[in-house]
Write a structure and sequence with these properties.
Helix content is 32%, strand content 20%. It has 428 residues and is an alpha/beta fold. Strand 3 and strand 4 form a beta hairpin. The structure holds guanosine-5'-diphosphate (GDP), 6-O-phosphoryl inosine monophosphate and magnesium ion. Magnesium ion binds next to loops.
Length: 428
């Protein structure tokens, strides 16, 4: 099973980091293909906890080659900080490869991200403030800086001048901020060149050659389907393609080389930032889920919005991504509920709608239609086979599997590396 894509099924933080780590010793390459340091993956290994933002989670597995591919936006200062933090904890990061075509996030992207949000006022997206949107905007506007530009001072200066020319007008005249100097940016980027040089590669070539040689490559999506720039709840989305198609364009590995698509889905739903969320709970149950699931952002520490499982979203994800397997996470968090509501369809203006509505306004005011499933009281964190789970937990899994459009192959019963129930192997 050489090329596997792993993506988020909902609005992020489903446990993709842990799922990647789980596959770690069976894969040779882990590739980040979209987003940047807006991602936040928590991986728990024994009594050690790692929080990763820009680096793919596969960096924690000895023997794995981590790759930051062309679809990523790279804040180089953050990259070095994250590498240094891992080196200090004894992790070998020497194999990391960074695409020469990946775009760079600099000071002005972070500034523009923050001021734009402030000016949006009530309509703000609730971005992570890491400069993600402005860096992708520059890429699409063809005024972006790429990793390879850092190794050609003349070109770099020209490009930074071009990018700042527009931005400084905006910052000074509209946002009332100080102008950013070309030298400031050029000098900073040049200062990264020596350390960066050995990591830079034609990552598309590296990955295709790896696949030719029979190696296993895992593409790890940041963010999630409902945050995808094309398929998510636009404009309350991130600025990249977080869906499985993004793995191809974001890495230079063709779609017909991809064998398997794994979607990580939480046994309930969370969202950070603004935008529609039909099953959101603004009551004691929502508070209970937040506390029990420890739903606070890894990147910004913001409390996550919480709600019940939404089956139409899972079906949507299955369809958009071509999901072959679901990894269902955090089933243990639901322990102790008498009954568990699951959204099976929506009520939109008095009509039953079975799929995610095409109109964003309809989705905004869709009310969930719930089915109540029986809960369980037994501690399930020690379960390692499906049969170890109490009958009601098994039935919950089977019921949502039937509604969600693909099989549930792995079930998370705790944050730890081995706290999983494997029903079907993800690599055979
Ligand atoms: P990601 O962004 O998709 O990688 O997810 P995050 O790391 O932001 O959030 C998922 C959180 O859930 C992390 O703190 C994980 O340690 C934790 N987690 C993952 N799987 C499970 C599980 O099955 N049970 C519990 N209780 N926690 C889990
Ligand atoms: P992982 O990979 C959850 C959300 C932000 C905001 C919107 C746009 O950990 O699942 P951005 O800074 O990307 O322009 O913000 O997207 N967002 C995430 N929410 N998990 C993430 O990543 C996210 N990355 C971005 O909260 O609503
Ligand atoms: Mg996260």
């Amino acid at each position: 099973m050489p090329a596997i894509v792993l993506i988020g099924a909902q609005w992020g933080d489903e446990g993709k980091g842990k799922a990647t780590d789980l596959l770690g010793d069976r894969v040779d390459y882990v590739v980040k293909f979209n987003g940047g340091n807006n991602a936040g993956h928590t991986v728990v290994i024994g009594d050690k906890k790692y929080a990763l933002h820009l680096l793919p989670s596969g960096i924690l597995s000895p023997g794995v080659t981590p790759v930051i591919a062309n679809g990523v936006v790279v804040d180089i200062e953050v990259l070095f900080q994250e590498l240094d933090a891992l080196i200090a904890r004894g992790v070998d990061v020497s194999r990391l490869k960074v695409s020469a075509n990946a775009h760079v996030i600099t000071h002005y992207h972070r500034t523009v991200d923050k001021v734009t949000e402030r000016f949006l006022g009530k309509r703000q997206i609730g971005t992570t403030g890491r400069g993600i949107g402005p860096a992708y905007a520059d890429k699409i506007n063809r005024v972006g800086i790429r990793i390879q530009d850092i190794f050609d001072e003349g070109i770099l200066r020209q490009k930074v001048e071009g990018a700042l020319d527009q931005k400084n007008h905006l910052l000074v005249k509209i946002y009332n901020r100080r102008a950013i100097l070309v030298d400031e940016i050029v000098d900073e980027l040049l200062s990264y060149a020596d350390r960066l040089r050995p990591m830079v590669a034609d990552t598309s070539l590296v990955l295709n050659q790896a696949l030719d040689a029979g190696d296993t490559v895992l593409f790890e999506g940041g963010q999630a389907t409902m945050l995808d720039i094309d398929h998510g709840t636009y404009p309350f989305v991130t600025s990249s393609n977080a869906t499985s198609g993004g793995a191809s364009t974001g890495s230079g590995v063709a779609p017909n080389r991809i064998d398997r698509v794994i979607a990580v889905v939480k046994a309930y739903t969370t969202r950070v930032g603004a935008g529609p969320f039909p099953t959101e709970l603004n009551d004691a149950s929502g508070e209970w889920l937040r506390a029990r699931g420890f739903e606070f952002g890894t990147t910004t520490g913001r409390p996550r919005r919480t709600g019940w499982y939404d089956a139409p979203i899972a079906r949507y994800t299955a369809r958009i991504n071509g999901v072959t397997d679901f990894v269902l996470t955090k089933l243990d968090v639901l322990t102790g509920l008498e009954t568990i509501p699951v959204c099976v369809a929506y009520d939109v203006d008095g009509e039953r709608v079975d799929e995610v509505p095409v109109s964003q306004s309809d989705f905004h005011h869709a009310t969930p239609i719930y089915e109540e499933l029986p809960g369980w009281d037994e501690d399930i964190t020690g379960a390692r086979t499906f049969d170890d789970l109490p009958k009601a937990a098994q039935d919950y899994v089977l019921a949502i599997e039937k509604m969600s459009g693909a099989r549930i192959s792995v079930i998370g019963v705790g944050p730890g590396r081995d706290e999983v129930v494997v029903r079907h192997s993800l690599t055979d």
